Every structure is written in C-alpha cells, then in structure tokens.
Amino acid sequence: MENKLRCSWCEKDDLYRNYHDEEWGKPIYDNKLLFEFLILETFQAGLSWYTVLSKRENFRNAFSDFDYKEVAKYSEDKIQELLQNAGIIRNQLKIRGAVANAIAFMEVQKEFGSFSNYIWKFTDGKPIDNNPKTLSEVPASTPLSDTISKDLKKRGFKFVGTTVVYAHMQATGMVNDHIESCWTRK
To answer: Is beta strand 175-176 parallel, antiparallel or unpaired with respect to 128-129?
Structure first.
C-alpha cells in the first residue's frame, strides 16, 4: 500500500488501513449498512474495534448478511447456535441484544420511514466535521451521542451507550473525525 498520511489509529495493518481509507467517516444512508454498523459497534462494546473488524465476515455469515428482518425473527435455537459460533463474539447478552436491536430498528422504520431518516435527523441530514488536528482532540462521546444514546435506549435498543453511539456516528460518517493531516480530507 502506498505511503499516505493517515489517522494514526489505523496503522496496525492493511485490514485497518483499508477500513480507514474506504469506509470510516464516509456518510452512510443505506439502512442495511447502518444496521450492519449498529450490530458491529454493539458487539465492540468493551472490546477493540479491531477485534470486531477482523471477525466482520464471520458476523456477516452468522447474522444473515445483516438482514435485520431475518435477525428480528431469530429463535431461541438460532441464538443457541450463535452462542456456539467461534467465529463471532459469543456474548449471550450481545447476541440477544442484536435480535432486540433488529426489532427496534424496524419499529423506528415504521415511525420515520427509514432508520436513516431517524438517525440522520440528529445532524440535520449532513455530517458534522470536527476537523481535529490530532487524535487527542477526537472525543469518545459528545453531548449529541448522549442524546442519541438516550433516545435509542428509550426505543428498546441494547448496548447503545454514548461511546458506542459515537463510534457508530464516526463509522457511518455522521461525524468526520479524520485528523487534519489525513489524506482522506483532501
């Protein structure tokens, strides 16, 4: 990979660099992708993002290609099967949370027409550019992620604390936290 100046957090390996260069911070309005990142971020709670990212394809296979309509219908047998799947993070509460989140996701769609309409209303439909000069200026959460977290919880979502929500906002481009010198800002 050519030598580009990036946000320092992604320099571990090509998996991380590619994720940074091709996905992180790019606005996502597609409901299926928003659900995918919601599931991945909720499994990341308490773990490193790298751990989840390295298991992404396993999650995709285990969770019906992130089809929220399918995940919402998961039976107890399917949950038990997922608990035996060594390719994913086998946390019972997070697996059950993914099913609950799929159900809540569809309820939000009924109310707002799409999850995208709902989540992007918090930023008036456009990304917030924080334009940090250094990684130390990038917060773990903000008053806005606090607000979104509270609203998601009120709607029945699980594992959506303010830090998870802020990570979701970064991943889906609701906020742009690429540092000032990062090539992706060009």
So the answer is: parallel
Q: Tell me: pLDDT of 1 over 80.
A: no
Q: Mean of the pLDDT values across residues 28-42?
A: 97
Cα 88 from Cα 37, distance rounded (Å): 15
Q: What are the residue ranges spanned by the domains of the chain?
A: 11-20+28-185
> Residues with catalytic annotation?
19, 41, 49
Q: What is the pLDDT of residues 76-99, one digit of tens each?
A: 999 999 999 999 999 999 999 999
Q: Which fold has domain 11-20+28-185?
A: Endonuclease III; domain 1 (1.10.340)
Q: Tokens standing for 46? A: 């308490």
What are the C-alpha distances in Å from 89 to residues 15, 22, 53, 55, 85?
A: 18, 24, 11, 8, 8
Write down the pTM of the prediction. 0.94
Contact criterion met (CB below 8 Å) for 55 and 89? yes
